[in-house]
Amino acid sequence: MRLPGVDGENLRRMPLKRGNKDGRPRRSERSRAFQVLYGLSFCPAHSLVDLKRRFARSLYAVPSAKEPEAITSETGEEAESGPELFLRDLLKTEDGGGEPVITPESVEDPAGFAWELTRGAWLNREEIDRLIADFSQNWKVERLGKIELALLRLAMQELLFVAETPPKVVLNEALDLSRQFGDETSRAFVNGILDAALKALEAGNLRRAGGWS
Known about the structure:
With 213 residues, the protein is an all-alpha fold. It has one domain: Orthogonal Bundle (N-utilizing Substance Protein B Homolog, Chain A), CATH 1.10.940.10. The chain is built from eight helices and no strands.
């Protein structure tokens, strides 16, 4: 019996390009996509134009994708973590701090792996959230931690729609991100959900839109 919400006809197919035009490695692209999705859990995007604007603004946020660990201040005290700093900068007023004002008219169509993952996870969020709830033994998505939910949305998008990424790689990359941005509980929870998803793939109860089954 197939799990609800996994019919490929009900999910938007999001074919992704193999390479990044700007040459950034996919690991850093996943990190950026995660941080944008994490920010959306606090302040959701209400349209694709809004999503593009948020993603464009992420380019001006702190480069925490390169420094995922907690950042240390000049006084030697532990400062805000990467996601917290990213979120703080992402939600600043548009004309604050001398940063460029980003309006819908000024937002060009984004490109690259990070954008494709972000866009796909946002477009497919209802179906992805249903799967997360199924694999978490009917925990309500609203009860999940924001870091865990962003990680799972990102991983499920890649698992379902990026045929060129082997399922085991999706799991390992998600666990790497959880080590950077979460804690031991986060890692265990994310691992449990994605392991269940991989087993559903192997059993034929879950199908990748890109052709894996």
